[in-house]
């Protein structure tokens, strides 16, 4: 089993080594393939990701990814969008579940939401043109992509509380009707209870009553925004892991960005990257090891071993050291 490891830029160079130290505790049969991608590579070579890089990734089973800086330069090729599209990692899975001991912006800790985001089209199609007086981006919605994202959302819903919320804006954006109707048909075929929400109303209600929601399926941009909003609900983007799932491969990353303002200071929160490792372990069918990783994170919070974004004063290294010791003593 080959695991590509991409630290990327900024705090990615701090949180991915931390996550790897936790993963290494289990001595799994993984061949680590390190790869340099992102803004740092672009500055040196003029390319953030090359065709050769993509070939390496296509020959790996899974990927652990840190974060990349994306400059406001039309010549910069988005690393994330390129990987998701070229490897057809069509489902972005983002769990929003509070950790005991951390309160988010609303104080509500009684929720467990899974955002399932279509990952390959929508406004992130990369079909764009920027001119002096006009700029446009082409938004693509297809039946095929809508069906398969609805399919995986229904599979998750069936394992949880059998409830699916379909997010759209078809009252204004008529293309959304294809996504909405396709998701409805798939949910009906799978006997999954479902309802629908306009994306703006959904953002409001997620803040007001997050406990109402179980699995949420959304087009690319809406899912991106709603899952980041979830960072405020759980207490920090530094707590949010994610997975990008395809037919044969998977890609795991913390939701947060490269955070250049704190990079190199030793205060980056490694928890989202470590929880991304837990999602990787689930994908590898190692649920017991995934459980231990999540318990280690909960233990660090309960013992108040936290980085500054969570109100603590511990360093990345100190939090990582605690997590490693916990996993080693419980595995």
Automatic annotation (TrEMBL):
It is an enzyme of class 1 (oxidoreductase). Residues 2-323 form the Isopropylmalate dehydrogenase-like domain. Its cofactor is Mg(2+); Mn(2+). GO terms for molecular function: 3-isopropylmalate dehydrogenase activity; isocitrate dehydrogenase (NAD+) activity; magnesium ion binding; NAD binding. Homodimer. GO terms for biological process: isocitrate metabolic process; L-leucine biosynthetic process; tricarboxylic acid cycle. The keyword Manganese applies. This is 3-isopropylmalate dehydrogenase. It comes from Methanohalophilus mahii (strain ATCC 35705 / DSM 5219 / SLP). It comes from the Archaea. Its EC number is 1.1.1.85. NCBIfam families: LEU3_arch.
